[in-house]
Design goal:
alpha/beta, three-stranded antiparallel beta sheet, about 25% strand, seven-stranded parallel beta sheet, single chain
Length: about 260
């Protein structure tokens, strides 16, 4: 068997776990022709990235319908989120019309954008992000209607999706739950419905995704990589994900910490 690169081997491990079975370390080591210690290190890394759940002697894939709480997501990778947000702001100038999705990274972007006080128009269903802009802000914020989801800090539902369908946007900014060669995915179906409409109505689609979401496939597909123009992240992707991004001609911007 040809020796795999570490990132490709971990992709194989995730695929095996995503088949729906709980696999033992010895089984994974045997199938990939590596030592059990190598598999343990791989599983530890995947566990740190919140992609698998460890148990004694093995692991199972994290359920596609599960996601950390809002508070946990806000607290996770704060420097990476801030760096990604700084790079995203550089894409815009006065009079641009953008649509901002939900999530902790999008919220961080909104906080930093509010400090810049650019003359932009932002459409969003991210209620948490909309509160970042003071009354005297030069940024116009248009909030999408719909059912409010306090766990996500956003609106979603038929009214939200229909609202986004009415407009055209220069750029969309989304921070999806997972990014794999399949594309961007979301845990909450209602959010995915709105984001599919956002992608369809935008001339340029930008994903703000930190490395902990690489290789993660959540419940519902938002967009294929072919629909993505720019990925802003904290660490360059590797392996099959990097190959798929290159094949889809996605521009990759790696944000540097200050």
């Amino acid at each position: 068997m040809t020796k795999l690169r570490p990132e490709d081997r971990r992709e194989r491990v995730l695929k095996a776990l995503n088949s729906g079975t709980s696999l033992r370390i010895k089984e994974l080591a045997r199938s990939l022709n590596v030592s059990t210690e190598t598999i343990r290190r791989d599983l530890d890394l995947l566990h740190e990235k919140d992609l698998v759940q460890r148990h004694y002697g093995g692991a199972v894939a994290k359920p596609v319908g599960s996601e950390p709480s809002w508070a946990e997501r806000i607290a996770a990778q704060p420097k990476s989120k801030a760096a990604i947000a700084r790079e995203a702001i550089k894409l815009f100038s006065d009079k641009d019309v953008l649509v901002l999705g939900v999530g902790a990274t999008a919220y961080t972007f909104a906080k930093q954008l509010a400090a810049e006080n650019l003359r932009l128009t932002i459409f969003t269903n991210n209620i948490a992000a909309s509160t970042c802009f003071p009354p005297d802000s030069r940024t116009r914020v248009v909030i999408a209607p719909g059912e409010y989801d306090p766990a996500e800090g956003c609106t979603w539902g038929p009214e939200t999706t229909a609202f986004f369908d009415k407009f055209r946007f220069d750029t969309s900014l989304l921070s999806v739950s997972g990014l794999s060669p399949l594309g961007g995915t979301e845990v909450v179906s209602g959010i995915a419905w709105a984001e599919r409409s956002i992608v369809a109505q935008s001339a340029r689609n930008v994903l703000m995704v930190d490395h902990t979401k690489f290789g993660n496939t959540s419940l519902e597909l938002v967009c294929s990589l072919d629909a993505v123009d720019i990925l802003i992240t904290d660490i360059s992707p590797e392996g099959e994900l990097l190959d798929a991004l290159k094949e889809a001609d996605v521009e990759i911007i790696v944000a540097a910490d200050e």
